[in-house]
Predict the structure.
Amino acid sequence: MSAVIGLCLGLACLWNSTLLGPLWIFVGFFMLRLFGQGSMTLIPSTLVPQWFIQKRGRAFSIMALGGFASSSFIPLFNVWMIQTWDLRVTWWVWGGLLNLLFTPLTYYFTVNKPEDVGLSPDGDSPKIVKSPDSFPIDKKKDIIDTEINWTLAEAKKTRTFWFILLAAAVPALINKGLTFHLISILGERGISPLNSAFILTLMALVGFPVSFLAGFILERVKTNYALAFVFLGEIMVLLTLQGVDSQLNVIVFGLMWGFVVGFEQITLNLIWPNYYRRRHLGSIEELLLV
């Protein structure tokens, strides 16, 4: 799936390099959202839990570093390519890198789960693994050599599943809305577009170390408690945004937003495998794309 989605995303970039009209652009951005931010983020959040159980939090933290690093670097790199060449060439560069470099690398070097190569999660020998406290009560017990895995049909019958799905959707709505409309929102308060765009870089720089620490913290803290903390943070971020009227307030908003997003990203990645385990995780998390 990594190779297939990588190829499709590369083709979407090449499609966008043509820019033949509004309908063409609509289809192109639809494919970018479907194969990029949707599918391409779903695959690693499903792959990492296959390889780690007890050390799952720190594994997600390390994975998140790449996302925050790219959020800090790639926008600047894109601006440089567009100004140096043009938008069309920039699309060609990303389409070529995805099709010629990323796709073959993932095809030949990605292993779906440790059992496929004779290993066990976390590199441990098979042993008794204690279910996390967050595991649904009617299936909570010690697991010997294997996990009790929920199918999508079984998960959908639990009230917890729908609460988690709602909890995962709310931060996505807030953060995507803020990201796409940040310049216009802050522009109404007299903040220049340049300073507004700086917030995205500041948010990524703050989220970088926070996400790394969050994984280690969440190995010791229940994910439902962490999710409640994330929601409180989202509320504070929105309240802070309401009062932004100066450059200092913009910086405070960016710092708070980066802290919350860094913690939120690890929490939402962890909560699904902690509750419903590994085997059917892809079909369960797929609902996040709907």
